[in-house]
Amino acid sequence: MDVDYYSLLTKAVEGKDASARDEIYRDAYGLIRKSRLTREAAASHAAALEDAIRRIEDQFVADGARSAAEINEVLSTNRSWKPIAYGTAALVAVIAAAASLYGYVPSKVPGVARTGVTASSKAVRVGDDVVVADLKPGVDGGSTGEGLPFALQRQVVFYRTTVVPGSIVIDRENRFLYLIDSNNSARRYGIGVAQECLRGGSFFHIINKMEWPDWKTSGASTDAPLASAGQPGSPLGARALLLDKPGVLIHGTNSPKTIGHLVASGCIRLVNEDVEDLYRRVSLETRVVFVS
To answer: Which of 74, 108, 142 lies at the terminal end of a domain, its last residue?
Structure first.
């Protein structure tokens, strides 16, 4: 079911300031996460929603030359709130209808397999809590994200933040890593997150960069990465960025299909082509911010 997010959001954010628009955008993302869509469908809807947001915000930037008097007129209390309320309500209704359709078709139409939805009525969100198994060490599952949902593939996106450009922001819940750029944009990468890295700590810095790292087992202590020992098929992939806390690192993987999921090992993983791209763009002491 196609949803015209651009038209719906344009009506919903009409006359709103940046803070109010962000709240509407977050609500829209929240509705998708809480819907009964399959992972693939949810990712597709999230990508369409993000494209609509980028188009709308670009238009706001283009219209930024309007005077303060004009802005005050748009935001004045005399302006009718009904079109905004109707637009928001329509957005909620359309997303709810899409969720119902995706939940209905697989279960009711003969010959259509039901995928990504549990037997219960529990909602499926974009980043679920099921740990996805890795390929065995030495098995090379590929280096690209071509088979992943579009939302998890490397791309430049609209991203408003107060974090300094050049920093890394890791959204553990939604499984995204952002390399912050100027002008409210960021380079976004899909990630997999190990259970050990779901919580604890918010602010770190990169203290070391490694090419083709591998695990080094040191008795009963925690496994640590060893530089220049890996090869295609290494669980840590092609590159690793070590942060200033033991066991916390950003690295590649030999299991690209685990991106977007909770994973069994490592910490924050990207497909190899993505971690190589990130490796080239950041330097030592780059700030890393974890958000949930």
So the answer is: 108
